[in-house]
Amino acid sequence: MIWYTALVLGVAGERIAELVVALRNTRWALARGGTEYGRNHYPAMVALHTALLAGCLAEVALADRPFLPVLGWTMVAVVLAAQALRWWCIRTLGHRWNTRVIVVAGLPLETGGPYRLLRHPNYVAVAAEGLALPLVHGAWVTAVLFTVLNAALMAVRIRCEETALACAPAAEAPA
Questions:
Q1: How far apart are CA 102 and CA 38, in angstroms?
Q2: 111: burial class by Cβ within 10 Å (0-12, 13-18, 19+)?
Q3: pTM
């Protein structure tokens, strides 16, 4: 379980890196008149993601979940793919990427990178990671609980983002 703990802690470190990027991007957006939406659901999102990491380790330790190589290594690949997709989203959005919903009026909707394929690719990464990370070491209860709760949260979050984007004045077309 030592290597699994290291994997979960690595994902936690990645989340901290995300928060550093998000804080920098929050400052950038607010300095440009950005408006934040959905403050009420943000604490629930932070709690759910923190509980995912804790649940992975707790369930494996307390329920003595075994490592099943075929499932485990497949899920490691999914976790790594989710990280790659997430950072592709972050790189594509640049200063506009955030863990919060902050919209700067006048910026065009991103249609490059993974956004040319999906409207909300970051949430695909979150869903994949939330299912795969627990299953790396057989923590199926954590995987199911996170998936169900995350689906409910994403319904709120995506509605919030769509409303925020619809409310923001669009960028003017070039002359």
A1: 9
A2: exposed
A3: 0.91
- Give the integer Cα–Cα distance in Å for 55 and 62: 10
Contacts of 83 (CB under 8 A, 6+ apart): 11, 14, 125, 129
Which tokens sit at 99?
Answer: 């863990």
Q: Which residues pair with residue 35 across a beta bridge?
A: 103
Cα gap 155→115, rounded to integer Å: 19
Tokens for 85, please give them.
């997709």
CA-to-CA distance for 28 and 96, rounded, in angstroms?
Answer: 8
What letters, b where the CB count within 10 A reaches 16 and e where it falls short, cover 128-153? bbbbbbbbbbbbeebbebbeebbeeb
- In the chain, which ranges are E strands? 35-37, 101-103
Kindly report the CA angle at 94 between 41 and 146, in degrees rounded to 5? Answer: 35
Fill in the amino acid letter for 53: L
Average pLDDT over residues 107-116: 94
Contact yes or no for 15/51 (Cβ under 8 A): no
Question: Mind giving me the DSSP string for 88-102?
Answer: HHHHHHGGG--SSEE
Query: Tens of pLDDT along 33-65?
Result: 999 999 999 999 999 999 999 999 999 999 999
131: three-class secondary structure by DSSP: helix
Give me 146's structure tokens.
């996170």
